[in-house]
Amino acid sequence: MSDYLVEIERAYSEARGIQSLLSPVNWNLASDWEKRGIPLRIVLGAIEDVAKRFNTEDREDRINSLKYFKQAVEHEFAVWKKGQVGRSDNGSPNEANADPVRAAVNDPIISTLLELQESYEAALKDAGHPELLKSAIRETIENLEKHREDFRTGRTSVDELESKLLRMRVRIELAMVSVTSAERREDIVRSVEQDFKDVMITEQARNKLCNKRLHRNHGLPVLTLWDL
Predict the structure, then answer these.
(1) 78-105: per-residue pLDDT in tens?
(2) What confidence tens digit (pLDDT) does each residue in 159-196 have?
(3) I want to staple 148 with a disulfide (CB 3.0 to 4.6 A). Which of 1, 56, 113, 189 is the partner?
(4) Which ranges of the chain would DSSP assign to H, the alpha helix?
(5) Are the C-beta atoms of 15 and 51 separated by less than 8 Å?
(6) How far is CA 144 from CA 121, 137, 140, in A?
(7) HSE-CB for 52 with a 13 A CA cutoff
(8) Which of 49, 68, 103 is the last residue of a domain?
(9) How far apart (Å, rounded) are the C-alpha atoms in residues 34 and 12?
(10) In the chain, how many domains are there?
(11) Residues 13, 98 within the same domain
């Protein structure tokens, strides 16, 4: 095992809080990062940042795969590559070759925002959605487009972007609750309680699970960069 993989395995174990060997799937992912030349410091930094965010949230799930960190690694690598665009072999800037806009197009965060926008645009065509929900969907689409451009041009950081998505998520969830019958909402709560009857979960975790199922019920993805 290369030092690169050893360090990733160590960081993965620390993120999980338990000694963890890389499974074949995780090994392949880490090996791919190594083959692509993603600097180890970028991978380790992404794992640490995501693990800190994960551990400060009241999550009902747990880290059980390197895939939890894939999006963050890809984003940080894209940012790093953007900083390398136009640099000569000795690391000095080369203005003639610099093209930060083109580099940003392949950013996984921007790709995620585009996928969210496309999903909400498809949902808007659903004739079964009440006007109240359609109005919230239209507002969400407009905000996704605006926030994507703000992120692309560097006016918004990843953390700021996630905070904005959280506020948008609250707005769309309020709309979904408003147009969902009390009977259907009760069915969702009962289904969550049934599925987790043998697991001790907090009320906040239960509400998050219910909201996820509400999203699924209306065919709308959860507005977040990190939901897996």
Answers:
(1) 888 776 654 444 454 444 344 443 344 4
(2) 888 889 989 999 999 999 999 999 999 999 999 888 88
(3) 113
(4) 3-16, 24-35, 40-56, 67-84, 100-105, 108-124, 131-152, 158-179, 182-195, 203-218
(5) yes
(6) 11, 10, 6
(7) 8
(8) 103
(9) 15
(10) 2
(11) yes
